[in-house]
User: Fold this.
Amino acid sequence: MIADVLADAGARMDRAVESAKEDFATVRTGRANPQLFQKVLVDYYGTPTPLAQLASINSPEARSLIITPYDKSALKGIEQAIRDVPNLGVNPTNDGNLVRITMPELTEERRKEYVKLVRSKGEDHKVHLRGIRRKSKDDLDALKGEFGDDELARAEKELDALTRTHVDAIDEALKRKEAELLEV
Assistant:
């Protein structure tokens, strides 16, 4: 039972760290990165559809992206969805077959705003990790009658170590993203 609680907590924390890394990837840096558009939803025949399902996204140069839709009728929707993305600051151009996006150079002020945004996202993900820890600790406390205090104390220490490891992983990803943002 204790092993099950710890294994479940570990799996959930692993997913939380992956989610944090994906979330960090959606924040714009100086380079054009197709991952910026992973969470963009396009209104496709009245249904919000992820951009990756509607088009291929390529980066031919460091500061430009080309989005080639599988269905040409989705061009206007894709263009509008990209224009509506907050904190991106790009203006897509549509030539009738594909959408071109040129990423403007980031100013120092804008870079600092993005660092604040990434730190905020990192803190949100750490709070989520702590929530997973709290729920797992409650699950361990519910086992009090079945197991001895020593076993539960040992399990709680393992849970704390697991949480610390995952928080450190988020901090490391955050540090890499900050360095990428501040790189000129």
Notes: Residues 40 and 51 are 6 Å apart (CA to CA). The two ends are 51 Å apart (CA to CA).
